[in-house]
Amino acid sequence: MHDFSLYFELGWQHICDWQGYDHILFVAVLCGSYLLTDWRKVLILVTAFTVGHSITLALSALNVISVNTSLIEFLIPVTIIITAFINIVKKKRSPGTLRITYVLALFFGLIHGLGFSNYLKSLLGKSSNITAQLLAFNLGLEFGQVLIVLCILIVSFILLNILKIQRREWTLFLSSAIFGIAFIMCIERFALIHFR
């Protein structure tokens, strides 16, 4: 039980850590164009992302797949740029664009899971039975992710309902700012890719 709470705490602290803010940026831009009243859609979206990163987190932590760390670190801000760009160019939501967003969230979750796995592997060391730690860490990541989503939705609620900012203006501002940050991250990380 002690191990479970330890890895749970490490999971949520890892995703909420401002030093590794790329995952925070992705979750923020993923749900930043939604409202509190859209909580069902956001739940499906976050679940799709969760399923994706749970798969690759488990496969990588169990040494089923091996990844080029520098390439994954480059691809994470690419997922942020694509998500931000979609928010910027889409005028209104249709069932078709929602389905595409869910599929992208699932696919991008696969990439982010590989990024999480490097940190988890360093924590696990030579442990042979890692199922409980893997589950606890993943649940911790989800808890941290939900905290980020709640913060973004509450900020959106305040800006739109109290300060009366237009929804489209908020979406454009948030997505453009995150797009710019992620673009700089891409440039910095591209130079560090080591192809095998």
UniProtKB/TrEMBL annotation:
<feature type="transmembrane region" description="Helical">
    <location>
        <begin position="170"/>
        <end position="192"/>
    </location>
</feature>
<feature type="transmembrane region" description="Helical">
    <location>
        <begin position="101"/>
        <end position="120"/>
    </location>
</feature>
<feature type="transmembrane region" description="Helical">
    <location>
        <begin position="43"/>
        <end position="65"/>
    </location>
</feature>
<feature type="transmembrane region" description="Helical">
    <location>
        <begin position="71"/>
        <end position="89"/>
    </location>
</feature>
<keyword id="KW-1133">Transmembrane helix</keyword>
<dbReference type="Pfam" id="PF13795">
    <property type="entry name" value="HupE_UreJ_2"/>
</dbReference>
<keyword id="KW-0812">Transmembrane</keyword>
<feature type="transmembrane region" description="Helical">
    <location>
        <begin position="20"/>
        <end position="36"/>
    </location>
</feature>
<keyword id="KW-0472">Membrane</keyword>
<dbReference type="InterPro" id="IPR032809">
    <property type="entry name" value="Put_HupE_UreJ"/>
</dbReference>
<protein>
    <recommendedName>
        <fullName>HupE/UreJ family protein</fullName>
    </recommendedName>
</protein>
<feature type="transmembrane region" description="Helical">
    <location>
        <begin position="143"/>
        <end position="163"/>
    </location>
</feature>
